[in-house]
Amino acid sequence: MKNDKILVLFDFCETITNFQTLENFLPIVAHKNPYFNQDINSTRRLKYQKLNIAYPKYEALIDCPIELIHEISKEFVFEKIIKNLNRNIMDKLFWHQDLGHEIAIVSGGLSIYIEDFAKIYEIDNVIAVDLEVSSGKLTGNIDGIHTMQERKLYKLSQMFDLKRYDLQKSYAYSDCVSDIPILSLVGNANVVECGKDLEWAKILGYEIIKKR
Length: 212
What we know:
It is a single chain. The chain is an alpha/beta fold. It contains 9 helices and 8 strands. The strands form 2 sheets. It has a 6-stranded parallel β-sheet, sandwiched between helices. Strands 4-5 form a two-stranded antiparallel sheet. Helix 2 packs across helix 4 (66-81) and helix 4 (66-81) packs across helix 6.
């Protein structure tokens, strides 16, 4: 099988965007989710404790109707994400699109809003945290792999036949040391400067890109 295709991997938070999206998204959902308030949460926690069941990871999302979460996600994309993009990285993304490279967002954020963003910019591939749905409502749990650190690589390999790509000529963009597994997969690793210690990136010889 010929492996001449170029794969380009973009982290999302503090790479494409200039902020941590999940930390901003959850309080918005908590405010709008009719099943999230102090009394409901306390009663629910006691119930889970008595049943000796692990409590869902994202309390703000529990029982949120799927139609409502889609509305919140779209609003979040237009009101928050698009207004806070890293222009240098977006320019790189457009450049790769013009060259016909295969682009994927690989993120520890939630796929529900990243997919809405990706549709706007015609990005076909999103590898992110999927949410479990039951009877038309979110459970607050993750569905499948939690795409952080090396688990991004695991889900990437599930979605792509990496043998089809020339990985030595492929690219990755991230701001975070936890993304070394993704950055080390390709021959062109780029690290976004966002106020964090980047000595690790310099030691590994990665290209440093300034935010704009």
